[in-house]
């Protein structure tokens, strides 16, 4: 009896202790870190240890982003719980105190949120995060959001029936995650961290636990880790701080621990490495071979201080110099690898890593390994040059200045993600101005010796891990072979790095005579757009906005894009785009151009769109003249380089070899070709076809468009109107006269859809996964009213797939539907229904898709279904129309050839709001005929475990 009373007293005292605990287990803001936190941030702790971070931000207005961060992930699981953290994350959407199973997602949709993009969650090694992006900041919607978060924190029902149903979905997600990169990651992790818990705690979990998980197992983890003193709430958006503080206090101050806290001893260490250790992992499904030299060591998980921030910055500067050397080797084709990267820093809290990596063809791994070894050793022995350091410092300072200039326009979603990352990595929470004021003078003070010492320090560990993975088949003693190559390279002598010759930009002289302005229209269609035509048939579209301070976006459109590719040269556009992207200018290769533009806030890239070519980018308004100089040079002296062609072919080969072993890739290579009646302008041609093209093939196709095609230049953002027009007159007016708008359309002919046909595609893969892809012929893009309604119909069908095939049957993880109307081929469009399946479920899932189509065409669509599909679209339109990228790309770009785009913008919102269920039902009856569909089954060639 006495013993019972003693036990009871201990239990009571224990719960009293739990109730009085106020100290968070992971303090997210340390007031003693040596630097003030961003003054816009409000941080607090409730009496139960629940932490919150608030930040008011009005971009976009009336929107709020919310994250619940639980400081527990897969590393906090026991051996018997492997996968439970992730399983539990799923279950919190499947029934809680305030939402019965199936109600939560419907609630999100009813207020205009998309499940996936606006409401989601993820589980990692050390934390689990729940995300909400609210379409309104009104009191009721925010309070409802906090009810949802409160349910995540304490209200999970964990019903047996829901646990059993979710099991299939998680197994489907596990199948979808299986890939060459994921398998290689697991093997590398086990090698890098021998004996560590990391390789045994991958968040997705293990089959044996997932297949047997029950309420007791899930609830034990839930009660242990989902406790108020182990959570932090991040709220960023357009709200009143005091109102939100009262709401947080109301909803979260009463949270209590549901069990004793048993201190979890995390085994994050591993056996330390000594000497040189080789690693080899053969993946025949990989499209290339990866080579890495690295060091890795354990470090305590510490709060970032100002000194640590300086150290991190200095290390990044040293890494960037090495990165530039490698990139130059690639662009000059003096390397046997097609890509390379350098990294040093923290990973998974405790892993301090320094790595230099390259991607190459399988027969070039030895040469690639030697080259990255020598590049690294060259830097370690001799350091860097002043020219290299100056370039990188200028770019770093330019980046800081850009962040400060754009600070007023930061979106709440971006800010909240930055805060989330910072608290989970214990980084300083600084405003762009604080970061600029602190780091700029430090960066300016960095010397060559500082950068050299930083590189030596990050590589000071007394070991080297040498990793070769991918499709290089090293038949005999692979580890010994790798070790020999590394040691032989290490014994070779090396010399100092020599700077390449510096070149100037701009280098072209402007002609004396100019083509003046022919006409000007202001406020076209009441859209605030000014259209100026020059006498040389170049058009300038301008729209001044305050959406984003201190930034302009620009886009140059000319020619006819992919639709103009010679029919006899399939895939030429894919190769050409890569060649122009990495070709630089005629007199400056890419590296030389970057060197000459160091410290400038301007980006520019070439792209081949479906029906036009484009040069596009962004800039600080103060760099407006540089933008026009770049446009002038690209149009008059584009860079066609053999080196760029060679590297483009190599990368195409690597990506093609990888794609044919994945469902998405084989759909691109072969499935798209099938759905276009085997028209060779679709799909991805084999590398043997790509390899036959020469630089002359590219020039013969493109140069006429560069020389004579009418050009349209669109600029939007925060700029001085008259300054832009004056600069345009100087540079645009100097371009030779072009053909007039509109461009005469090319007759692309008819594309024949394979109605009623069935194709089975096989992948040579270890993956136990496949795809059922059902396609229905629709129409081209240009009946915009119909196109908009088909997009909403696709959303309705996507939701039906989710409810039936994912939620009810547990057969898949992320089914989706989309309509893809062509902008080039008259009458051609396809509505795609895509479901990932396990290897023996293709016919079963296809029959369910047929049933869904029959139900829609025979029984129609409910108003509720349509509203749930349409509300998120209208919600997103409000934000979309206040972005520069929307106006540039969807309205202004190529409007010279398609002036109806101006009208579309004016009626877009009203048109979407006018959509009725009858509209969708009519389209369903018109286009969704199972007998007209084309069916593709994608399956593994051989099923291997």
UniProtKB/TrEMBL annotation:
Pfam families, alphabetized: Peptidase_M16, Peptidase_M16_C
Cofactor: Zn(2+)
UniProt enzyme class: hydrolase
Gene3D superfamilies with a match to the protein in the record: Metalloenzyme, LuxS/M16 peptidase-like
GO biological process assignments: proteolysis
Keywords on record: Hydrolase, Metal-binding, Metalloprotease, Protease, Zinc
Domain Peptidase M16 N-terminal: 52-178
Stated name of the protein: PqqL: predicted zinc protease, M16 family
Organism expressing this protein natively: Desulfobacula toluolica (strain DSM 7467 / Tol2)
Name of the coding gene: pqqL
């Amino acid at each position: 009896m006495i013993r019972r009373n003693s036990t009871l007293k201990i239990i009571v005292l224990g719960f009293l202790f739990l109730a009085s605990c106020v100290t968070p287990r992971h303090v997210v803001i340390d007031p003693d870190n040596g630097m003030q936190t961003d003054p816009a941030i409000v941080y607090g702790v409730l009496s139960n240890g629940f932490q919150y971070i608030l930040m008011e931000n009005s971009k976009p207005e009336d929107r709020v982003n919310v994250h619940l961060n639980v400081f527990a992930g897969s590393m906090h699981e026991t051996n018997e719980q492997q996968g439970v953290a992730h399983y539990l994350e799923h279950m919190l959407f499947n029934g809680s105190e305030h939402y019965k199973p199936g109600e939560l997602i419907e609630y999100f949709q009813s207020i205009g949120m998309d499940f996936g993009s606006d409401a989601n969650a993820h589980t990692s090694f050390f934390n689990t995060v729940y995300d909400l992006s609210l379409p309104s900041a009104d009191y009721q919607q925010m309070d409802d959001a906090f009810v949802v978060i409160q349910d995540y924190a304490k209200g999970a029902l964990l019903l047996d029936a829901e646990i059993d149903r979710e099991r299939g979905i998680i197994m489907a997600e596990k199948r979808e995650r299986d890939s060459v990169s994921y398998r290689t990651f697991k093997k590398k992790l086990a090698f890098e961290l021998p004996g560590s818990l990391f390789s045994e705690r991958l968040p997705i979990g293990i089959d044996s636990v997932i297949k047997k998980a029950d309420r007791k197992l899930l609830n034990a983890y839930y009660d242990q880790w989902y406790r108020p003193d182990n959570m932090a709430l991040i709220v960023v958006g357009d709200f009143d701080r005091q109102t939100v503080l009262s709401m947080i206090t109301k909803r979260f101050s009463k949270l209590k621990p549901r069990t004793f806290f048993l201190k979890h001893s995390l085994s994050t260490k591993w056996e330390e490495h000594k000497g040189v250790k080789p690693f080899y992992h053969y993946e025949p499904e990989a499209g290339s071979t990866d080579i890495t030299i690295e060091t890795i060591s354990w470090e305590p998980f510490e709060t970032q201080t100002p000194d640590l921030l300086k150290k991190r910055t200095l290390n990044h500067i040293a890494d960037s110099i090495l990165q530039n050397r490698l990139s130059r080797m690639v662009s000059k084709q003096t390397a046997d690898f097609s890509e390379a990267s350098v990294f040093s820093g923290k990973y998974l809290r405790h892993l301090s890593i320094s790595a230099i990596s390259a991607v190459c063809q399988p027969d070039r791994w030895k040469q690639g390994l030697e080259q990255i070894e020598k590049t690294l050793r060259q830097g370690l022995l001799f350091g860097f040059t002043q020219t290299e350091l100056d370039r990188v410092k200028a770019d770093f300072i330019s980046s800081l200045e850009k962040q400060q200039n754009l600070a007023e326009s930061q979106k709440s979603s971006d800010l909240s993600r930055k805060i989330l990352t910072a608290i989970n990595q214990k980084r300083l929470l600084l405003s762009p101005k604080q970061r600029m004021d602190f780091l700029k003078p430090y960066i300016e003070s960095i010397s060559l010796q500082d950068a050299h010492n930083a590189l030596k320090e990050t590589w000071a560990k007394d070991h080297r891990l040498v990793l070769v993975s991918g499709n290089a088949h090293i038949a005999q003693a692979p580890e010994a072979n790798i070790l020999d190559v590394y040691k032989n390279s290490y014994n070779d002598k090396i010399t100092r790095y020599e700077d390449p010759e510096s070149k100037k930009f701009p280098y072209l002289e402007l002609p004396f005579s100019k083509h003046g302005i022919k006409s000007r229209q202001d406020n076209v269609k009441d859209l605030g757009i000014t259209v100026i035509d020059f006498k040389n048939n170049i058009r300038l579209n301008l729209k001044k906005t305050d959406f984003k301070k201190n930034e302009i976006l620009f886009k140059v459109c000319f020619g006819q894009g992919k639709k103009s590719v010679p029919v006899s040269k399939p895939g030429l556009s894919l190769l050409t785009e890569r060649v122009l992207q990495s070709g630089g200018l005629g007199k400056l290769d890419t590296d030389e151009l970057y060197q000459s533009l160091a410290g400038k806030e301007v980006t520019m890239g070439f792209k081949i769109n479906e029906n036009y070519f484009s040069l596009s980018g962004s800039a600080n308004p103060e760099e407006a003249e540089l933008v026009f100089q770049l446009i002038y040079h690209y149009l008059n002296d584009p860079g066609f380089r053999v080196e760029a062609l060679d590297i483009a072919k190599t990368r195409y080969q690597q990506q093609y070899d990888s794609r044919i072993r994945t469902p998405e890739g084989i759909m691109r290579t072969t499935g798209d070709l099938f759905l276009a009646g085997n028209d060779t302008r679709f799909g991805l041609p084999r590398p043997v076809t790509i390899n036959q093209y020469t630089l002359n093939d590219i020039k013969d196709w493109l140069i006429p468009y560069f020389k004579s095609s009418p050009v349209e230049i669109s600029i939007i953002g925060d700029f001085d109107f008259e300054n832009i027009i004056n600069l345009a007159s100087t540079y645009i007016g100097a371009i030779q006269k072009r053909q007039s708008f509109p461009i005469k359309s090319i007759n692309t002919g008819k594309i024949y859809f394979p109605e009623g046909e069935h194709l089975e595609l096989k992948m040579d893969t270890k993956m136990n996964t496949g795809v059922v892809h059902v396609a229905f012929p629709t129409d081209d893009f240009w009946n915009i009213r119909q196109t908009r309604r088909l997009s909403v119909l696709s959303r309705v069908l996507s939701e039906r797939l989710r409810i039936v095939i994912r939620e009810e049957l547990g057969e898949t993880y992320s089914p989706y539907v989309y309509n893809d109307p062509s902008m080039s081929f008259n009458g051609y469009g396809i509505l795609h229904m895509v479901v990932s399946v396990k290897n023996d479920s293709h016919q079963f899932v296809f029959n369910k898709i047929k049933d869904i189509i029959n139900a829609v065409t025979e029984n129609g669509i409910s108003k509720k279904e349509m509203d749930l599909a349409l509300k998120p679209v209208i919600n997103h339109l409000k934000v979309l129309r206040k972005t520069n990228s929307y106006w540039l790309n969807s309205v202004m770009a190529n409007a010279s050839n398609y002036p109806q785009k101006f009208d579309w913008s004016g009626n877009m919102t009203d048109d979407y709001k006018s959509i009725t269920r009858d509209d969708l039902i009519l389209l369903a009856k018109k286009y969704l005929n199972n007998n007209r569909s084309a069916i593709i089954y994608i399956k593994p060639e051989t099923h291997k475990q």
